[in-house]
Amino acid sequence: MTTTTQPPALTHGRGTWGRTGQTLAWRAGWTLAVVIPLVFLAIFFAWPVAALVARGFSSDGTSTLGAVAEVLGSARTWRILRTTLTLAILGSAASVLLGIPGAYLLYAVRFPGRGLLRALVTVPFVLPTVVVGVAWVAVLGPSGPLAGLGLEESLPAIVLALVFFNYAVVVRTVGGLWSRLDPRAVEAARSLGASPARAFRTVTLPALMPAIASAAALVFLFCASAFGIIMVMGGVRYSTIETEIWYQTTQLLDLPAAAALSITQLIVVTLALLATSWTSARQERALRLRGDASSERRWVWRRDAFATLVTAAVALGVLALPMVTLVVRSLRSRDGWTLEHYRALGTTVGRSLPVPVWVAIRNSIVVALQATLIALVLGVLVSLVVSRRPRKAAARRGLRLLDSVFMLPLGVSAVTVGFGFLITLNRPPLDLRQSMILIPIAQAIVALPLVVRSILPVLRAIDPRQREAAATLGAAPGRVLRTIDGPFLLRGIGLAAGFAMATSLGEFGATSFLARLDRPTLPVVIFRLIGRPGEANFGAALAASVLLAVLTATVMVIAERVRPATASEL
C-alpha cells in the first residue's frame, strides 16, 4: 500500500509562513492600538491647544510677543498665578490631612456598611464643579445654614469646596495601598515597645508616602483647574489661571493674554504631571514589595476613635451638609415647602432659557453616552499598551512617556481645548462647527485620563506568569489576550465607564464654548440660571443641580458595585 505524504520542506514552509503572518498581524494590531489614540489626541487636543497658543503669538502675520511679555510681566497676572497656587496648595494640604484618617477607616478597618460609605464618599469627586459651587453657595449664602459665618466668596469657602471635591482622591489612593500593607512590620515594632503613634510614624507612614505624594500631586492638579467652583464661588475677588483664560477669550477676545496664561498653565501642569508620574512609579515598586497580606482589622473604638471622629466630621460637615442643603433649598420658597422649582424645569424658567431644562437633561445624557463610548474605546487601547512589561529599558521608558502623554488633558484647561476647537475645526476637511459631535469629543478628551487610570491598575495586577503559562501551552498571542487579559479588562471597564459618564455629565469648561443656544447641556443651563437675578432662577438652578447630582451619583454607585477587587489608582 502506498502512502502519500507531503514533502517536509513544503510542510515547514507553510508553518513558517503561518507563524510569520500571525506575528505581522499581531505587531500591526499593537501598532494600531498606539497610533489610533495618538492620532485622536493629536487632532482633538494637541492641535487645538497649539493653534490657540500660536494665534496668541501672532495676529495677521504680525508678532505679538511684546503683548505676551506685557501680560506675563503685569501685576494682575502674577496675582492670578499666586491665587491659583495658593488655592491649589491649601486645597491639597487640607484634602491630604483630612483624607488620611478616612483612608485608614474605610480601607484598613472592617465594619458594617463600609462598602456603601466608600461609594458615597466617592460621589463628590464625580459631581460637576458647577453643582459643587452651587451647593456651597446654598450653604454660605444669605439664607444658608452657615450664613452667619460671613464666608461667602471667601478663600476658606473655596478651600472647603476643593476639599469636598478632592477628598475621595486621597481616600481611594492612600486607602488602596493601606489595605494591602503587610501588618507584620507594625506588629514587630509594637512587640519591641513602640507606641501605636510611634509605630504609625516610623513604619506605616513611610510605607504610605508614595501613595500620599501621588494623591497630593493629583489633588494639586485638580485644585489648580477647578473651573466651575471658582466661576460660581470666586466672585470678583478670586480669579485663577483657568477663569482668566475664559475671561480673556470670551469677554475681551485678547488671544495674546490667553496664550500667555495657557503657557503658564502648561508649565504648572507639566511639573505636576512629572511629580505624579514619579510618585506613581514609586508606588508601583512599593506594591510589588508588599506581597498579598492584608492589614485590615475589626473596628475598635479605643484604637479607632480619632479616625472615626475626623471621618465623621468630614462626612457630615464637609460632604453631607452642602448636598443636604442643596436638596432642602430646592424644596423651599418664601411661602414654605414647594415643588415649584422642579415644576419649572419643564419650562424656560420665565424665558431665561431658550429651551426647557428637561431638554438640556436629555442632551446631557445623550452626549455623555457618546463621550463615554469614545473614551472607553481609546482608554482600553491605551491601557492594553501601557500595561505591557517589555524587557528592554528603552521600551519601558517609552510606555511611561506614552502614559504621561495621555494624562495631559487632566491639567490643561478645558476652556483652552474648547476655544481651540472653534479656531481649528472650522474649515475643511474638519469643519465641525455646526456638528454636535464636537461636544462628545471634547468631553471624551477630558474623561480619557480617568478611564486609563481606572483600567490600567487592573491590567497591571495580572501576574505575568499567567500569560507565560498560556503561551507555553500553545495559546496564540490573541488567545492569551482574550482569555487572560479579557476577564480582567471587563472587570475594570465598569468603573471606567462610570467615571467617564459622570465626568461627561458634569463637564462645563469646553462645553460652555461649544454648546449651541438651542442644544445646551445641564451644567451650561445651571450656570446661566445662576447668573440671572430672581428667586425663580436660583430655585430652578438648585433643582437642576439636585437632578444632576442624583444622576451622577447613581452612575457612580452602579460603577462602584462592579468595581474590581484590585485597588484602583482613583
TrEMBL record:
The keyword Cell wall biogenesis/degradation does not apply. It is a multi-pass membrane protein. It is found in: Cell inner membrane; Cell membrane. InterPro entries: MetI-like, MetI-like_sf. Keywords: Cell inner membrane, Cell membrane, Membrane, Transmembrane, Transmembrane helix, Transport. Residues 81-276, 361-559 form the ABC transmembrane type-1 domain. The chain crosses the membrane at residues 24-47, 85-107, 119-142, 154-174, 208-235, 255-278, 305-328, 365-386, 406-425, 437-459, 488-516, 536-559. Belongs to the binding-protein-dependent transport system permease family. This is Iron ABC transporter permease.
